[in-house]
């Protein structure tokens, strides 16, 4: 599905591309580190060490929603710090990379350059296939997260974003009230 490997390599400073060969080098598995507080890597997910920790049925329903809905959609996992939101976001990205191109945003300089990079990736790399971008608040400020969400919603490309956001206990209660 990737049309231009040179372009892909030029974007690897900003994005981690989940591809069908990622997660196969089991010497990179970080099971011990993950169980002791490190961020889970793709090899550890591939090995199945994460799935028993998370309710698989709810995850599958959420994944189907992402696959089914239109592009230009933003999805958010809200969680309290230390409750596994980053792991859940990575698990969902892992599952979905088998059905659509998935990228993890590692860094960006300006929102304008990021929008251009996404356009290049969408148009030249993935032949206009819809794609999903995983964006974890652990790596960005609140202002940057808002800027990223607006850029995704306003994008002319068939992209979706999965945001992972940490919230306080009081914010959890507010969200639960609004949800009920």
Polypeptide structure, described:
With 180 residues, the protein is an alpha/beta fold. It contains eight helices and five strands; from the N terminus they run αβαααβαβαβαβα. It has a five-stranded mixed beta sheet, sandwiched between helices. Helix 4 crosses helix 5. It is globular, with a radius of gyration of 16 Å. The model has no long low-confidence stretch (mean pLDDT 85).
Cα-based radius of gyration, to the nearest Å? 16 Å
- Sequence of strands across the biggest β-sheet: 1-3-4-5-2
Helix content: 40-55%
In angstroms, what separates the terminal alpha carbons?
Answer: 42 Å
Low-pLDDT ranges: none
Shape assignment: globular
Question: Which strand-content bin applies to the residues?
Answer: 15-25%
Reported for the largest beta sheet, the result is: 5 strands, mixed
Write the topology of this structure.
Layout: H1 5-10, E1 15-18, H2 31-35, H3 42-46, H4 56-68, E2 74-79, H5 85-96, E3 102-105, H6 111-125, E4 131-136, H7 142-154, E5 159-166, H8 169-179
Parallel strand pairs: 2-5, 3-4, 4-5
Antiparallel strand pairs: 1-3
